Amino acid sequence: MAHVELKNVVKIYDKKKIIDNISLEIKDKEFLVLVGSSGCGKSTLLRMIAGLEDITQGEIYIDGKCVNNVHPKERDIAFVFQNYALYPHMSVYENMAFPLKMRKMSKKDIDAKIKETAEILDLTELLDRKPKQLSGGQRQRVALGRAIVRNPKVFLMDEPLSNLDAKLRIQMRSEIKKLHEKLQTTFIYVTHDQTEALTMGDRIAVIDKGIIQQIGKPIDVYNNPNNKFVGGFLGAPAMNFFESKIINNSISINDKFAKLSDNQMEKLKGIENVIVGIRPEKLNLNNSNFDFSIQIEHTEMLGNNKIAYFNINGNSCSVILLAESDVKTTTTIKLSTEDLMFFDSKTNIKIL
After folding, report:
1. What is the fold of 4-233?
2. CA atoms of 230 and 221, how far apart (whole Å)
3. pLDDT beyond 80 at 1
4. Domain limits of the chain?
5. Run of H or E including 177
6. 183-218 pLDDT, tens digit each
7. CATH number assigned to the domain covering 240-344
8. Which long-range contacts (C-beta less than 8 Å, at least 24 apart) are formed by 301-307?
9. How far is CA 126 from CA 138, 172, 225, 274, 341, in A?
C-alpha cells in the first residue's frame, strides 16, 4: 500500500513540454484514473512514476520517499501494459512465476502464490497454456496476475483494455474494480476512454496538453466541469455548446430568448457574449421551461435510445430520445434554463 505524490513534475522532449508542471497526490489504496485524448501526456506521466521515463524537473514520492533516482525495480510497483507483454514461449504459470524467480523466492512459495492468484483471477484451468492459446481477456488476466503475485505497493495500468472488444471491456472493467477492492492497493490507471474513467475511478484527473484540467470524483467532474474542454471531453454524446448573447436578462437560443433567473443574472452580471453548454440528457425533461423549433439532420439508433442531431446557432448539437420516439424533420426541443452552463467566450473557463 502506498501514497504517491508528484510535485511540479515536468517532462520536455525536443524543447517541447509534454508534462507541464503537474502536482498530484494519490492517496493510499485509491483508484485514480488519468484520462485524456491521445497525446495528452497521460502515459508519459505514468511511465515517469514507474521510472521508465526520466523526469526533466520536479519530484516524485512513493510513501514519502523521493524516487527520482530510484531504479524501476526498486520502486515496488507493478506495471500492466497495453499489449500484455507476456513471454510467448512460457506457459501462464511460468509467466506469472517469472518476477518471483527474479526475487529468488523458493519454489514452494512461488507455487503457493501463483495458485492463490490464479484462483482470484479464474486462471487455475489455464496455467499450463501458452499465451497464443488464450483469448484477449484471458491474456489480460494473466498480465494482471503477473503483477499481483509481486504484491506491489502500487499498480500502474496503461490502457490495459484498449485491445479488447466492447463486450469484454465492460466485463474487465468490473473485474479490475473488484480486484482493487479485494487487494486494497493503490491503483493508477491510464485511459483515453471517458466511460472507463467515469465508471472505474474513485477520482479522475482530466489531462489536456500535459496539464491537469480538473481532478475530483467522477460525478463531480461530470456535473461541474472547470472549463469547456472538460465539459466536452466527458460524456457520450458530448455536451452541446453554442455561442450566445445575454440581452435584458435573457439568453439567445436558436433565435429565441429564454429568461434567466435572478441568481443566474447575478453571476453573469456585465457579461454579454458567452458560450452556453447543456448535456444531451438534460433536453426534453419534464422540468423544462423553454422550447424552440429545430431541424433534425440525422439520427443514430442505440438500443433503447436514439440520438438526434440538430443545430443551435450554427453549432452541431444532439439530444437523447427513446428509440420508439416519432422524430419528424422539424420538431420541438425543450430545456430548463437552470440546466444551462455558461463558459467565458475567451478563456473557456466555466462561469456558472
Report:
1. Rossmann fold (3.40.50)
2. 8
3. no
4. 4-233, 240-344
5. helix 166-183
6. 899 999 999 999 999 999 999 999 999 999 999 999
7. 2.40.50.140
8. 307/237, 307/280
9. 9, 17, 45, 58, 52
SS3 131: helix
Query: 20 is written with which cell numbers?
Result: 507541464
Residue closest to 194 by CA, chosen among 339, 20, 38, 28: 38
Tell the residue number behind the cell numbers 496476475, with chain if given: 145
Q: How many angstroms separate the Cα of 71 from the Cα of each of 53, 68, 76, 98, 198?
A: 11, 9, 10, 19, 33
Rounded Cα distance between 44 and 50, Å, is: 10
Angle between helices 136-148 and 166-183 (to 10 degrees): 20
Label residue 290 exposed, middle or buried (CB < 10 Å: 0-12, 13-18, 19+).
Answer: middle
Helix (H, G, I), strand (E, B) or coil at 232: helix
SS3 97: helix
Q: Determine the Cα–Cα distance for residues 288 and 208; give it in Å rounded to an integer.
A: 34
What strands lie across the sheet with 203-208, from one edge to the other?
A: 77-80, 154-158, 186-191, 31-35, 203-208, 211-216
As given in the structure block, the three cell numbers for residue 58 are: 520536479
| Contact predicate 143/81, CB 8 Å | yes
Q: Are 227 and 348 in contact (CB under 8 A)?
A: yes
> What grid cell was written down for 199?
465508471
pLDDT digits (tens, 9 = 90+) for 104-134: 899 999 999 999 999 888 899 999 999 999 9
Q: What is the pLDDT of residues 236-259, one digit of tens each?
A: 899 999 999 999 999 999 889 999
- Residue 323 pLDDT class (50, 70, 90 cuts): confident
